[in-house]
């Protein structure tokens, strides 16, 4: 094993004077250095450490302490997939995929969707809906397609979630007078943005 611990220049006092301090290894079998606190952007008062429960936290005397786990963007990630092909000739919405979330805190979320669809006749209109909790339309779109040619569709939209368990559905239906709508490779995901 190659020892990767190298001497660091550590700031000893706020006036900027440096000393050649050699950090010590906490565990010689691993390649890391035991350091308490890291100065960022020449600010010697910022501390990055653990909170006692092995959660990383940042402490600054002007801002306070923030745990990395408490940062919002990208948290509360939920995902659902259905790769089977579903079809309908109905003009009422049919559910293709339902994402049931974990217990979400109140907040702003982003919903992503993707799927492939086809219709059995040229220039026939279909309709797709992304809906939350069987009542809030996040997005509705109605394209026209070529006969039996699968078309990729994907998108995203903001969603202001109610607290608790939420459902996000991908629904589809035929709007045209005739034809069979097919949908496959469906995905839904949601995560918190604020």
Describe the protein.
The chain is an all-beta fold. It has two domains: 8-70, no CATH class; 78-192, Jelly Rolls (Sandwich). The protein contains no helices and 15 strands. The protein has strands at residues 8-11, 18-21, 47-50, 56-60, 64-67, 78-82, 86-88, 94-104, 107-119, 124-132, 136-141, 144-145, 151-161, 164-174, 181-192. The strands form four sheets. Strands 6, 7, 9, 13 and 15 form a five-stranded antiparallel beta sheet that branches. Strands 8, 10, 11, 12 and 14 form a five-stranded antiparallel beta sheet that branches. Strand 4 and strand 5 (64-67) form a beta hairpin. It starts with 7 loop residues before the first strand and ends with a strand. Mean pLDDT is 79; it is low at 5-11 and 20-26.
Q: How much is the average pLDDT?
A: 79
User: What overall form do the CA principal axes indicate?
Assistant: elongated
Query: How many helices in DSSP terms?
Result: 0
Radius of gyration: 26 Å
CATH architecture classification name of the largest domain: Sandwich
User: Roughly what fraction of the amino acids lie in strands?
Assistant: over 45%
Ranges where pLDDT stays below 50 over 5 or more residues in a row are 5-11, 20-26
**Count of beta strands:** 15
Task: Describe the largest sheet.
Answer: 5 strands, antiparallel
Structural class: mainly beta
Can you give the helix content as a percent range? under 10%
What is the fold named in CATH at topology level of the largest domain? Jelly Rolls
H/E topology pattern: EEEEEEEEEEEEEEE
User: Could you name the CATH class of the largest domain?
Assistant: Mainly Beta
How many structurally independent domains? 2
